[in-house]
Amino acid sequence: MNEIIQTSKATKHFGAIRAVEAVDISVRKGEIYGFIGLNGAGKTTTIRMILGMIRPTSGDVYLKGRKVDAGATDLWKITGYLVEAPYAYPDLTVFENLEIARRLRGLESRTSVERIMEKLAITQYRDRKARNLSQGNGQRLGIAKALIHDPEILILDEPANGLDPAGIAEIRELLKDLALNKGVTIFLSSHILGEISKFATRIGIIHEGALLQEVDAGELDSLLRRRLLVRTEETARARSSLETWGYETSLNENGEIEILGEEALSRSASIVTELVKAGLPPVMVKPEEEDLETYFLRVIGSNGGAA
Known about the structure:
The chain is of the alpha/beta class. 35% of the residues lie in helices and 26% in strands. It has helices spanning 43-50, 94-104, 111-119, 135-147, 165-182, 193-199, 217-223, 235-244, 262-266, 268-277, 292-301; strands at 3-14, 17-23, 26-28, 32-36, 58-63, 66-67, 79-82, 153-157, 185-189, 202-207, 210-216, 226-231, 249-251, 257-260, 284-289. It has a 6-stranded mixed β-sheet with strand order 7-8-9-4-10-11, with helices on both faces. Helix 2 crosses helix 3. The longest helix is centred in the middle third of the chain and has 18 residues, at 165-182. It is elongated and about 80 Å long. The two termini are 38 Å apart.
């Protein structure tokens, strides 16, 4: 089976609160699946169901084709995770925290701790108590615990929390290496959408507990809107002229003319020239291309979001 993580109509209600509703997720081996949504959209609840930390109200969750339930304890041996805030024993050092993780995982090699500290760039803090770590280094310690046993499946909830830009880039490259070169299947949630777009191979958008869309990274580019914004002193005449020339136009909330499509962007200079010749010189011309963040806001907006 190529699907490593799969949910089938996974639903979780907390009393009258419908946290997650009939979510179908499919993540293939070696994918980096970016799970994005607003706060309270259902990301962490879904992750907890995938990990077996909470039971679905209805529906099922599978890891490597095996149903996640109380008896599937062997699945924990191949899964690493970080959910919400990284947990550590505050009065123990970085080394001691990782040594406990090593023993709990049943790893015989004592070099596992040194290796993972080096990989997460926290060797210099090996003797520092966890409570004295910065937020970013506490996050690195949490990720180190998730990775110490070389898991086949890695599930991370907001792994970039507390990291500075350099740290975010380091973790990004680490995760790319794990997926591309070691076949690790990675499922992560994040609110840093610009970062997700840099390395996720597949993206799922969840809103108000419902999975609105799953899209491969290669398909995303074709879904992003590209448009040319034009402002003139005579908007109605300019729109009429543009449409006579074969362009599709609309007006945005700022009273600017939107010309949609790649052709408008590639011919922006020609459009300006034609408008000037028609006695309609633009006072503003601005090419605009959506990124993942603006696309996400458009998708949730069309489904009753705040966008």
